[in-house]
Amino acid sequence: MPYDPSAFPPFAVTVDLVVLTVRRHALCALAVRRGEPPFQGRWALPGGFVRADEDLSQAAARELAEETGLRAHDPAVPVQDNGAHLEQLATYGDPKRDPRMRVVSVAHLALAPDLPAPRAGGDASNARWAPVEELLQQGGYGRDGEPVAPLAFDHAQILADGVERARSKIEYSSLATAFCPTEFTVGELRRVYEAVWGVALDPRNFHRKVTGTPGFLVPTGGTTTRQGGRPAQLFRAGGATLLNPPMLRPEV
Amino acid sequence: MPYDPSAFPPFAVTVDLVVLTVRRHALCALAVRRGEPPFQGRWALPGGFVRADEDLSQAAARELAEETGLRAHDPAVPVQDNGAHLEQLATYGDPKRDPRMRVVSVAHLALAPDLPAPRAGGDASNARWAPVEELLQQGGYGRDGEPVAPLAFDHAQILADGVERARSKIEYSSLATAFCPTEFTVGELRRVYEAVWGVALDPRNFHRKVTGTPGFLVPTGGTTTRQGGRPAQLFRAGGATLLNPPMLRPEV
DNA sequence: GTGTTTATCGTCAAGCAGACGACTATGATC
DNA sequence: GATCATAGTCGTCTGCTTGACGATAAACAC
Fold it and tell me: What's the angle, vertex CA B102, arms to CA B98 and CA B105, rounded to 5?
């Protein structure tokens, strides 16, 4: 099969972002309102076209910065400051997923600590953090009683895949610390697990597990009472990125 | 940002396949020899352009069938007959990964039982099963003393990612059975784990683990002596696709 | 002070994994 | 046919991890 430029059809390639954070004990995702057809006025995942000279991860990092101001982190470096974790999720290329043309979307997953309200081109009403269950329920009613339209395109599927990736990955990695600020307490980390998994964990067993895993948490020496109650030790994420044996998600 | 068709550059989209199998106690991958530039004469992963009306998974299944004659399996259905397991691996889109043009490749991972020698357009010399360490070593010498050229494009990276995916996924899923024929013995399944992980496992503990996990293996009633020694029970893969608690890979 | 909240340490029993002994049922070899 | 080599299968024991849960500690609110 010789090289024949007419032998392949042209595609548009985009990146879509599943940006997750934990707000008020709930796992939330960033959604933006579409300003033009198709799906005008509907909520969608942030994303955009990959530029001609851009790598996929560069495009994802650029979109993330444009939407949230977050800098993406080199995955090889442990999570520090307020950089977000960013990784490729999966690629979606159904021929009919975009009615305009053939679009292949390389979805990425970003995990970020709780952030100020998002901006989308400076317009706050066109971007928001929404609980993932609210975004994923099809045709129900949101917390404010307003009817909820499903996400545009196949973004509900992409979001569901991203949430599932996050849920399973915090089992065996230190990724949950990406949802926390630089310094955090064991209790704050536990509340992240509880929000992402939607379960309640035993504070004593959780404390034993995370403090007993070498290299997972590094004490900073400080303490805080920002959660109330007895002062809690502050930690930073340690160098260990793999949790072995994994944190066990309680069976449903 | 209004819809502007000139706002995005056209891409070529391909699928590349990491097809793994276990032959003679070694994890092997399917490689094809390139017939045209660039990288003419070098080994590469099989793959090809996605057609205009084709989904990504369809394109991957088509390429797999063209190269091996294998039918891909619906992932929702437990592995049966000689269908191969096929799943999306990751997408590679470095602007310079193909010197001819901008190509985004959606790599897929296929796991197959040991197969007869492959064919590439009917020409056996242009397709082969090669041990993955042989394909991944850069500029060394193969088992026959012949110098080994690295794989074309970024295929060494893709292969390495696919191998790592397979290695980690058999820990917590029943995916290792995809390397086995329909009916297999506990020892044969153990040799799959040993080949994929490159370690030796205790036959007694392995037997206890896999036969003690409900729904993982279903006895067919038959026995075989094809491995020599005492006759062994034959099993089929059970409905359980998740292995909990996981099979522990011995630490390096 | 009393109560509430959160953090942290300890105890105990059940389950699982790793190490390894013992026995079984074939084919191969003498 | 006896012996050996090979592979499969069943048990035992020990140590580690988990899940359930009691107890104590250190802050704040009243």
Answer: 70
Query: Average of pLDDT values for A168-184?
Result: 96
Q: What single-letter DSSP state applies at residue A126? A: G
Whether A203 has a pLDDT exceeding 80, the answer reads yes
What mean pLDDT value characterizes chain A?
89
pLDDT digits (tens, 9 = 90+) for A71-119: 776 554 444 455 789 999 999 999 999 999 999 999 999 999 987 666 6
* Chain B residues closer than 8 Å to A61 by CB: none
Residue A228 distance to chain B (closest CA, Å): 36
Residue type, B113: P
According to DSSP, the residues that pair with B11 across neighbouring strands are: A11
Q: Express each pLDDT in A22-31 by its tens digit.
A: 999 999 999 9
Helix/strand/coil (H/E/C) assignment for every residue in chain B: CCCCHHHCCCEEEEEEEEEEEEECCEEEEEEEECCCCCCCCCEECCEEECCCCCCHHHHHHHHHHHHHCCCECCCCCCCCCCCEEEEEEEEECCCCCCCCCCEEEEEEEEECCCCCCCCECCEHHHEEEEEHHHHHCCCCECCCCCECCCCCCCHHHHHHHHHHHHHHHHHHECHHHHHCCCCECHHHHHHHHHHHHCCCCCHHHHHHHHHHCCCCEEEEEEEECCCCCCCEEEEEECCCCECCCCCCCCCC
Confidence of residue A250 (pLDDT cuts 50, 70, 90): confident
Say whether residue A106 is in contact with chain B using an 8 A CB cutoff: yes
Tokens coding B168: 């980690």
Note the CA–C1' distance, B140 to D12, in angstroms.
48
In this prediction, the residues of chain B whose per-residue pLDDT falls under 50 are: 1-3, 76-80
Positions of chain D reached by protein Cβ under 7 A? 5-12, 17-23, 25-28
Nucleotides of C under 7 A from a protein CB: 4-10, 16-22, 24-27
The SS3 assignment for A93 reads coil
Closest-CA residue in chain B for A104? B13
Q: For chain A, percent helix, then strand, then coil, each to nearest 5?
A: 25, 30, 45
Question: What's the predicted TM-score (pTM) here?
Answer: 0.91
CB contact under 8 A, A1 and B37: no
Q: Is A240 on the interface with B (CB under 8 A)?
A: no
From the CA of B58, how many Å to the nearest CA of chain A?
10
